């Protein structure tokens, strides 16, 4: 009987280290999380009339919002998106070479022309939200678009 009690206590002692969980303080730094290709998958579009959320895919009704961002370790990012032609008559699928910096949970992206965009990383959802301000070509109203990216 003592042997059974001893063996059960020994097995319990051996199992205890497996019950210890890791805390949230071991989160990976954004500098390593961000490396790789991110794809937009939804957008929230807001104007003075309200806000709506749409699914974003490379093809389809909301393809104009679709973007890809490929972050490299050397602080460069290639952003693929729909770009306006020089004559402002059409759009084409193109890419821009940009650089990025990280400050806490914010990523600042600067394109070749010096224009900046700020994105915020949300570790709980493992996504990046990029806020874009645009003018609606149909109404002339300011549109605020939050573009959600995931790997």
Outline:
The protein is mainly beta and 151 residues long. Helices cover 15% and strands 49% of the residues.
Would you write up a description of this structure?
- With 151 residues, the protein is mainly beta.
- It has one domain: Lipocalin (Beta Barrel).
- It is 15% helix and 49% strand.
- Strands 1-3-4-5-6-7-8-9 form an eight-stranded antiparallel β-barrel.
- The radius of gyration is 23 Å and the shape is globular.
- The relative contact order is 0.17.
Task: Furnish the topology, listing elements before pairings.
Blueprint: H1 2-19, H2 30-33, E1 36-47, E2 50-55, E3 68-71, E4 76-84, E5 91-103, E6 106-110, E7 116-122, E8 127-135, E9 142-150
Antiparallel strand pairs: 1-2, 1-3, 1-9, 3-4, 4-5, 5-6, 6-7, 7-8, 8-9
Summary tags:
151 residues; mainly beta; Lipocalin; 9 strands; globular
- CATH fold-level name: Lipocalin
Calculate the mean pLDDT score and round it. 81
The CA-CA distance between the termini, in Å, is 56 Å
Name of the CATH class: Mainly Beta
Q: Order of strands across the biggest sheet?
A: 1-3-4-5-6-7-8-9
- Unreliable segments of 5+ consecutive residues: 1-25
Query: What Rg is obtained from the alpha carbons, in whole angstroms?
Result: 23 Å
């Amino acid at each position: 009987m003592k042997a059974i009690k001893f063996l059960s206590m020994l097995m319990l002692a051996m199992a205890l280290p497996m019950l210890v969980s890791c805390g949230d303080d071991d989160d990976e730094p954004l500098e390593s999380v961000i490396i790789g290709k991110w794809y937009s998958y939804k957008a929230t579009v807001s104007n003075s009339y309200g806000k709506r959320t749409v699914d974003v895919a490379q093809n389809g009704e909301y393809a104009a919002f679709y973007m890809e961002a490929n972050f490299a370790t050397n602080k460069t990012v290639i952003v693929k998106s729909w770009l306006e032609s020089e004559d402002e008559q059409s759009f084409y699928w193109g890419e821009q070479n940009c650089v990025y910096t990280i400050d806490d949970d914010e990523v600042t992206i600067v394109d070749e022309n010096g224009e900046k965009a700020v994105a915020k990383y949300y570790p709980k959802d493992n996504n990046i939200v990029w806020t874009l301000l645009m003018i609606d070509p149909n109404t002339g109203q300011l549109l605020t678009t939050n573009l959600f990216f995931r790997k």
